[in-house]
Amino acid sequence: MIEARGLTRRYGNKVAVDDLSFSVRPGRVTGFLGPNGAGKSTTMRMILGLDRPTSGTVRVNGQAYHELDQPLRRIGALLDAKWVHPNRSARAHLRWLARTNRLPDRRVDEVLEAVGLAAVANRPAGGFSLGMSQRLGIATALLGDPEILMFDEPVNGLDPEGIRWIRGFMRDLAAQGRTVFVSSHLLSEMAQTAEDLVVIGRGKLISQCTTAEFIDNASESLVRVRTPQAEELRAALARADAEVRVEVETGALLVSGVTTQLVGEVAAAGGVVLHELAVERASLEQAFMRLTDDAVEYQTTALPAPELVTAGR
Amino acid sequence: MSAVNLISAESIKLFSTRSPWWCNLLAMVLPVGFATAAVLSWPTDVPISVTEVQMGYQFGMMLVLVMAALAVTTEYRFGTMRTTFQAVPGRSSALLAKTALVAGVAGLVGLVAALGSLGVASVLHPVSDLGLGTADELRAVLGVAPVFVFSAVIAVAVGLLVRQSAGALALLLVWPMLVEPLVSVIPTVGEHIQQWMPFVAADHFLRGERSMIADPVLSPAMALAYFAAVSVGLLAVALVVARRRDA
Ligand SMILES: Nc1ncnc2c1ncn2[C@@H]1O[C@H](COP(=O)(O)OP(=O)(O)OP(=O)(O)O)[C@@H](O)[C@H]1O
Ligand SMILES: [Mg+2]
């Protein structure tokens, strides 16, 4: 359980995190979503007590981070896979860290095995590829066998194989009943892994809800219905204040502003047979962009489109 | 979190990369090399003093300063300081463990360097009666160990305050080599202020009346106490700053 209350952080007169309150529920994967510069990494550093909030608090299992005894056993984190001395071996890196929280050396070999680095454990970490560094970072997070895990953009820069591995790994962690808090700037990425979402833009909370709810709200969804009793259903839906159009080619009904549940219930109440009931939505990224539009930190001014040269025609 | 675990963690850090090994090795070899050179260039029939033989401690001290400062600044450079603070959120206990380890290693290095210098000189210059008989001789030889210990404490503190290698090393090498010796150039008060310079005080402790201070206020023992106090004071300031700052 992670709980932020009124969390605020200024750097000079720049407000990186602005009165942010949210909670990460135990035993689930919660995505921490926001465009670049939204304040995700800053928030995570504050959760770990690395950066000091300007105001507000954040608690891990009800305690301030600095009150945790042997914190690696409570919460493990991967904020930056490059936080390793390049000439130190992966094993030595994990060994010193294990020692600080009185974890047995055996644990070091276990996590190296778990992330598939056992064979290169004695090689200097500076020579690792990004994917291997990321695995070492995950091993670091797992070292204390914590019930809460936090990852900052873990798939950034990874190849498809690496991405698949990380996604699978996070799902396994959640299946073991752990709390996973993972940041990303891609909704499509989060849609694949997270059950809950905390969405921020320019340091402010935009939304905290389940991923399904967010996607439903964010993307203007159309419900597509095929039925042999189109006229009856259309009338019933109109009475329920839904806006209904007819798809010309197929004769299917396209209903906006409603959920599939509602359409199903209206149909059942009117004794209408359904052949198809499906959600069609705009792409997730479009939806996300629209929601965070005025919360995007670095907006590019669109270049003027080159004018078409029509002279001489 | 017990001190033993934290010191053990720091010792894995210190000895799992190469540069501390090189610094420590050189910190032992250079003074012995200097002693060898001093003795070989000394007339064979004139006795050489223990203080003369130990002059090379300064080279060892420079390397100890480098080793101790790098133990801190490389952690900032590569982000492992953040990982350390994440594991030990109290911060000070981890930093004190590092200081204790680095200072302890520095003390051992100083002892080996000083005894090595003495040993080499006695073998190469049998005419001299080199030993640890007098208080001055004891200080000149065994005193190198505490001087290295507190030098390392100063370097750790400077590393914590400056946080990057180039700046910390420049400060730590220029200060004792250039700034302190040049303080005496200041008209009228220079000579008096100079004996309150920490590394001048350490030198006074080791070399007594042979040091560069003309008219010392502090006894050699008090000079060491003063050097120690400066180093501990600086460390205290650095710990407070490190606690307050973003990691
Ligand atoms: N140490 C710092 N000093 C000054 N400004 C900072 C500092 N850390 C972060 N910021 C600023 O705070 C804002 C939030 O940064 P942060 O790194 O938390 O965003 P983010 O959501 O992690 O972005 P990204 O997706 O690019 O990683 C940015 O505008 C950044 O420039
Ligand atoms: Mg970030």
UniProtKB/TrEMBL annotation, chain A:
Entry keywords, A to Z: ATP-binding, Nucleotide-binding, Transport
Residues crossing the lipid bilayer are none
GO molecular-function terms, A-Z: ATP binding
InterPro entries named in the record: AAA+_ATPase (IPR003593), ABC_transporter-like_ATP-bd (IPR003439), ABC_transporter-like_CS (IPR017871), P-loop_NTPase (IPR027417)
What's the superkingdom here?
A: Bacteria
Record Gene3D superfamilies: P-loop containing nucleotide triphosphate hydrolases (3.40.50.300)
Q: Which residues form the ABC transporter domain?
A: 2-227
Q: Which family does it belong to?
A: Belongs to the ABC transporter superfamily.
Q: What PANTHER family has UniProt attached to this entry?
A: ABC TRANSPORTER, ATP-BINDING PROTEIN (PTHR43335)
Q: What is this protein called?
A: ABC-2 type transport system ATP-binding protein
From TrEMBL, chain B:
TM ranges are: 21-43, 55-74, 95-120, 140-162, 169-189, 221-242
Q: Which organism is it from?
A: Actinoalloteichus caeruleus DSM 43889
State if Acyltransferase is listed as a keyword.
no
Keyword match Cell cycle: no
User: What protein does this entry describe?
Assistant: ABC-2 type transport system permease protein
Q: Which UniProt keywords apply?
A: Membrane, Transmembrane, Transmembrane helix
